[in-house]
Amino acid sequence: MSTIVVTGLEIEARIARRAGLRALVVGGKPEKRAATIADAIAAGATGLISFGIAGGLDPKLVPGTVLLPETVHTDRGETFVADEKWRRRLMAQIPSAIPGAIYGGEAVVSRVSDKRILFGRTKALAVDLESGPVARAATAAGIPFIVLRSVADPAHRNLPHAAVLGLNDKGRVAYGAVFGQMVRNLHQLPALLFTAMETRRALTAMHAIAEPAPGFHAVPVKT
Asked: Is residue 181 in some structural domain?
């Protein structure tokens, strides 16, 4: 099966598939993410890429900033190291990408105050929901992994509640939930518009780097 791209959103997976990559959407609960990734490894995956957008923690990072982290920290106190040869190969092809650490959370970090605390504690550049289970599963299976993400909501931006609830277990927009939240809280509209613009910028950045990067397609070698 070779390399599998792991995403939380269907729109992220479509970007990877247009670049000729196999993509797996693991949106939903932590248990579902872990089980879906485990199934992919059992089916023959030889390397995993955590791919998509992330919430900014470092206040210096703007939406659309591309990240190629060396390490993944998790809610469980774990630290996993991305495959260095694979990561360096991609870094040479994406010189604008920023190295560092990323935080693999088990829940969305939506409030500025929580982002500030998490950054102060971990110095992670950003947070997402897939990098933790990807790193954990790949390490347990003895296969390499890397993380390639772009910043969507920056550290100074609260995510509106409608945005947090607005995705279903298949990684698609749950329009009913978003509309329901909007009806109850119309004051969220400006924040939702900012979130939509910043997410679009992050996805555009991922699209720009995916297709010209042949290092995605190379089957990683165990290190």
From this structure: no
